[in-house]
UniProtKB/TrEMBL annotation:
Entry's Gene Ontology molecular function annotations: tRNA (guanine(46)-N7)-methyltransferase activity
Gene: trmB
Binding, S-adenosyl-L-methionine: 55, 80, 107, 130
Catalysis performed (reactions): guanosine(46) in tRNA + S-adenosyl-L-methionine = N(7)-methylguanosine(46) in tRNA + S-adenosyl-L-homocysteine
Protein name: tRNA (guanine-N(7)-)-methyltransferase
PANTHER family, alphabetized: 3-DEOXY-D-MANNO-OCTULOSONIC-ACID TRANSFERASE/TRNA GUANINE-N 7 - -METHYLTRANSFERASE, PENTACOTRIPEPTIDE-REPEAT REGION OF PRORP DOMAIN-CONTAINING PROTEIN
Pathway assigned in UniProt: tRNA modification; N(7)-methylguanine-tRNA biosynthesis
């Protein structure tokens, strides 16, 4: 599965601040985990045994930091490809002394395929992934059936997948794709209310004030 795949991201030349670059240079070795083609020892990585939540595409890390601070009993493994976002979260981790976050700077599909053991994750967060709004680009969207099948296999029974988007068409696709995965079941009738642990970002708050919609989708892996 996923020996080759269409990437859901494109490396563009993006601005990175001096502080973000400095964090990459000095802190990635402390809080980062290198991509490898063998299974990751989660207990050894975090130095403790705890439920691990995988966050895919954490952007600038604002939400990751807040959730990790509010849930110190859980481990958070963030996967992001862009230097600015990784540098930003590294700065946040250091400033807040958040000890329960680790970062892998690599393609999430390959991380899941190669590094995450089956039945090992307590949850997955996919917040505001690139919507690829043009029809010809929909194939690049992250939430597709093969990917969700892979994700579901890495969840513990009872573990959850939580997606959020402000693009209604993508929200409908998320609901349909997760609903078609036989290993998963919806926790709600349709879309879910935003859980307390997912904070409102500044961007999201602004959108809501302007009348834009935000949709949350939360499924759990079935318990046999």
């Amino acid at each position: 599965m996923f020996t080759t795949h269409i990437r859901s991201f494109v490396h563009r030349r993006s601005h990175i601040t001096q502080g973000q670059q400095q964090a990459l240079d000095t802190l990635l070795a402390k809080w980062g985990v290198s991509y490898q083609t063998s299974l990751l020892d989660l207990e050894g990585t975090f130095g403790r045994r705890a439920d691990t939540i995988l966050e895919i595409g954490f952007g600038m890390g604002e939400t990751t930091e807040q959730i990790a601070l509010s849930r110190p009993q859980d481990n958070f493994l963030g996967v992001e490809v862009f230097n600015a976002g990784v540098g930003s979260l590294l700065k946040r981790i250091e400033a807040s002394s958040v000890g329960n976050v680790r970062i892998i700077q690599h393609d999430a599909v390959e991380v899941l395929r190669d590094m995450i053991a089956p039945d090992s994750l307590a949850g997955v967060h996919i917040y505001f992934p690139d919507p690829w709004p043009k029809l010809r680009h929909h194939k690049r969207r992250l939430v597709q059936s093969p990917f969700i099948q892979l994700l579901a296999s890495r969840l513990k029974p009872g573990g959850y997948i939580h997606c959020a988007t402000d693009w209604e068409h993508y929200a409908m696709q998320m609901l349909a794709v997760l609903g078609q995965e036989p290993a998963l079941e919806n926790t709600c009738e349709g879309f879910a209310p935003r859980p307390e642990y997912r904070p409102l970002t500044k961007f999201e708050s602004r959108g809501l004030r302007l009348g834009h919609g935000v949709w949350d989708v939360i499924f759990k892996r079935k318990v046999d």
